[in-house]
Amino acid sequence: MHAHKLKVTVPETHQVVVWLPDDFPSGEAEVTVVSRVHDAESPVDDFAWLKSWSASLPPAPTIPLEALDRSELYR
Fold first, then answer.
1. pLDDT greater than 90 at residue 56
2. Which residue from 36, 49, 67, 75 has the fewest beta carbons nearer than 10 Å?
3. CB-facing half-sphere around the CA of 1: CA atoms within 13 A
């Protein structure tokens, strides 16, 4: 597998031309473009509904170990 990584500045036209080295094999390849600019908006919380729902639940009851009848465990 060959990889070629380079940094570019994306112009207002949003067009980037990539010239690969001569020794890069021809054929199918994958191109990934990652922006280094961070948006001012916070990312969407996909689990906000789950957090809200779980916060609305009453606390789970607790039972001290001394209150358990351990003989029930070995029947």
1. yes
2. 75
3. 3
Which residue carries 């003989």 as its tokens? 71
Please report the sign of the dihedral spanned by the C-alpha atoms of residue 33, residue 34, residue 39, residue 45: positive
Say whether 47 sits in a helix, a strand or coil. Answer: coil
* Closest listed residue to residue 33, CA positions, set 3, 1, 2, 8: 8
Tokens of 45: 């919380």
Give pTM, 2 decimals. Answer: 0.41
DSSP-assigned states of every residue in 58-75: PPPP---GGGS-GGGGG-
The residue whose two tokens read 């908006």 is: 41
At CA 42, angle to CA 35 and CA 38, rounded to 5?
A: 25
Q: What per-residue confidence (pLDDT) applies to 42?
A: 64
